Amino acid sequence: MMTTSYTDIQRLFEQRKNNPLFNTSYPLSPGDWAKYSTSGTLSFDASKPIAFYLHIPFCRQICSFCEYTKMCVPDTEKQRNYIATLIRDIERFVEKYPEWKFYGFDIGGGTPTALDPEVFSELMIWYKHFIGERMVTDRFEPSIEGTFDSMASDYQGYHKSRLIAKARIKRLSLGVQSTSDKVLNPLHRNTISSKEMAEAIEEWHRLGISKINLDLMYGLPGQTVENIRKDIEVIRMLNPEQVTVYEFRTNQLNAPYKTDNDTCFTQYCELYEGLIRLEYYGEFGRNTFSRDAHDMGLSSYLRHRMFDGWQYKGFGISAQSMSEYGVSYNMGKNESTGKLIDNHSYESIAYYDLPSNELLNKFIAISGYSGGFSLSGAKSLFGEDFATRYNHILHFLIDEKLATISGDRLQLTKTGFRHYGAILSLFYSLGTV
């Protein structure tokens, strides 16, 4: 049974506010959803738009801070087989819904641009043909992930960027994480000079890739406020259209390094204040910043997933899908990627038929990257009585000045963001966590 008293809520918040377990991950443990596991496949509402996410798990080198499913780039034949299998899974899926309208299409990883040039070319040609035959929403904005070292170091990089531009993908998201050798090298990642980055961005813009997003991280081992200030200076010089900042999570798989809330909060504040000085738009607590006040610094897939809770379908090893009926995970979530890439399908092996409160919890965790969540999105998943059922929590957050409510939006205050994980978790099953 859910506890409801003000004292209970206050006690839980105090217990959790320094516990790194509570962040933007949900469920907290895979076993938490065991009772919802069911046979069959996840259903979707064909009357509503959908987004596709394609997971390419290959990287040129494996960064020790990365928690995603990945492996070193295999030989060309295995790459080609992986892409062919992924495409077969997509084509089998869309046969069921030939009239579907797309609100987003993201290709991530891993590092999609780490594919060999000929395999990457095949993927881009397929994507252009596939999406060219589909209906899309007015604000459809696809995106692809990459790294500077897989694109900008030689002619092959420019070849890949031309393919991206010809496929009409206008947003390219690149992981920088830090500009400090001392921070990145011990984590098995190389830096690239700001001059090389500037030259690459100029070339991509010339080709028609109009939105460059750069990812930065904070809370990394050895990272300091001074490192953050140098990162901001590089952003000032490069002037990308978008910047995304990610917290190094201390409960990531096999992560021996532990940080703390104070360190992460201080470094986030430095990033936020620096980006605002550079005239990027973004509310405090959000991890995305943009030169354009209207696009929120996100692809359309991420924008509607994070802010509205719209349905999406993932393809490839370990990809996740979500609809109003539940959540599913493709094979590979907790398995060796190398053993699976020769499979004839990577489709779902774990489907959870979730009740409304669990769908709400998942949505709130995802929305946590925005520093709050949409009240209408919560109602659409939980039901019209959301505000009544969670009224005691909402009042606690307002009374303690941990969050504000303005129109459709619950947003954490600066005080609240310091312990965002503890606040998000208050909406979970309070009596059982």
UniProtKB/TrEMBL annotation:
CDD domains linked: Radical_SAM
One Pfam family, short name: Radical_SAM
Alphabetized Gene3D superfamilies for the sequence: tm_1862 like domain
Name this protein carries in UniProt: Radical SAM core domain-containing protein
A GO BP annotation: porphyrin-containing compound biosynthetic process
Single Gene Ontology MF annotation: 4 iron, 4 sulfur cluster binding
InterPro entries: Coproporphyrinogen-III_oxidase (IPR034505), Elp3/MiaA/NifB-like_rSAM (IPR006638), rSAM (IPR007197), rSAM_horseshoe (IPR023404), rSAM_sf (IPR058240)
Annotated GO CC locations: cytoplasm
SUPFAM superfamilies reported for this sequence: Radical SAM enzymes
Top-level taxon of origin: Bacteria
Domain Radical SAM core: 44-286
Phylogenetic lineage: Bacteria, Pseudomonadati, Bacteroidota, Bacteroidia, Bacteroidales
